[in-house]
Amino acid sequence: MENKYFKLSESLYDICTKYPFLIIFLSKNGFPNLSDKSKLESVGKSLSLENAIKIKKYDTIQFCKQLESYIENELENNQLVQSSSDISIKGLLPCPVRIPLQEKLSEFISDYESENNHKILAELKAASMGVDWLVENKQIWESIDNMPDVFVSAGFDLFFDEKMIRKFSNGFSSSLAYESYNTDFNNDYIQLKDPNNQYSLLAVVPAVFLVNTDELNGREIPNSWADILKPEYENSISLPVGDFDLFNSILLHINKEYGEKAVKKLASCMQEDLHPSQMIKTESRKQNRPLVSIMPYFFTKMIKPGGKMKVVWPEDGAIISPIFMLTKKSSLEKTQKLIDFMSSTEIGEILSHQGLFPSVNPNVDNNIPKQNKFMWMGWEYINNNNIGDLILKCDEIFKTEIEDRKSNFLKNLKFGFK
Phi-psi bin for 197: left (phi > 0), alpha (psi -120 to 50), beta? Predict the structure, then answer.
């Protein structure tokens, strides 16, 4: 079976050289060693596609159809190496505002391409899809030349991992139209703007408390992160563990402000891991109702006013997960109009007003009371620590404490303790 994309007699190495994105497909379909560059060069050169299919005992026709379909899909999505005149923007968009942002971006691209010689290749997926599709595309992390011209996403994981974007940080330069960020972020010690002018922010995702006042049972309403860590709130809190961007930011900030013991305390406070959309429905439960749910500010607008659920903005500041935009120095001349659009008041208002993600654009009214602070660990701390390793460490501390609690519960259950 032959087609326009490959021949059965071709080696896996040759096919993957022609279509680098196939490494991801083949790795997930029985050939995980191909993601290792040395194995691709050694094994891949000596193994034809036909023999590889036979070794795995796959149906040749069906496998080739899947391979062909994958190639066509990737080609349609512009995942091949772009021409030097094209502009690429990749990343993740927050789910609550993904559709309106994409609609505006499509309008901008249409107008831009009719007036300029550059094409804009956009690949912006929903944040709920996670970053695996980017992490697994190992070519991106081999050289800054392989990085998109503009990269947008939230959280710390990719941006400050020394094996990924962090190692290319000197190749990025912020080129926003405004010098200063929105004055909503000018409280206390917070300084969101990168002093090294490498990382740009578009907005932030704040974490706040949703308190079920019926579950207080004589306890005070917690008004700060320090309060949350008190013994009386043990086993009383739901956390958005599955929302990796925000949850990892919570772990990092708790660790920075209060130390590793506080990360363990946070784990001991957790009653349940819930998605924010589940958190807002816990008041209707007959039992196992969390006293406090820690959630993105966006979901608080779904709370019915006048009920038992009270939204609390932490006095010591809402921990934030930043929405970053990285722009390559080498591409600024051709990307400036796209950068201006992505950081514009129009986009800032979509983020802020529709997503409740406060914008850093100084011309956007975020409708945030001036007394509401933000907690930000600061660029000095970020630059003096390997944030990628810190995330793994904090996550391990948290998970170990959860497992220890489960183990102790089972032991007590076994020996008849209550």
Answer: left
pTM for the structure as a whole: 0.77
Task: Determine, yes or no, domain membership for 412.
Answer: no
Q: What φ, ψ does residue 30 adopt, rounded to 5°?
A: 105, -5
Q: What is the domain range of residue 298?
A: 205-319+395-400
| Residue 285, CA distances (Å) to 68, 232, 305, 307 in order | 49, 22, 18, 15
Please list the alpha-helical segments (H only) found in 179-243. 225-228
Number of domains, the chain: 3
Q: Are residues 26 and 95 in the same domain?
A: no
* Nearest in space to 120 (alpha carbons), one of 342, 373, 408: 342
Same domain, 115 and 192: yes
Q: Is the confidence at residue 90, as pLDDT, over 80?
A: yes
User: pLDDT at position 418, please?
Assistant: 44
Which of 44, 76, 108 finishes a domain?
Answer: 76
Structural contact between residues 292 and 209, judged by C-beta atoms closer than 8 angstroms:
yes
Instruction: Render pLDDT for 154-194 as a digit per residue (tens, 0 to 9).
Output: 888 888 888 888 888 899 999 998 889 999 997 655 789 99
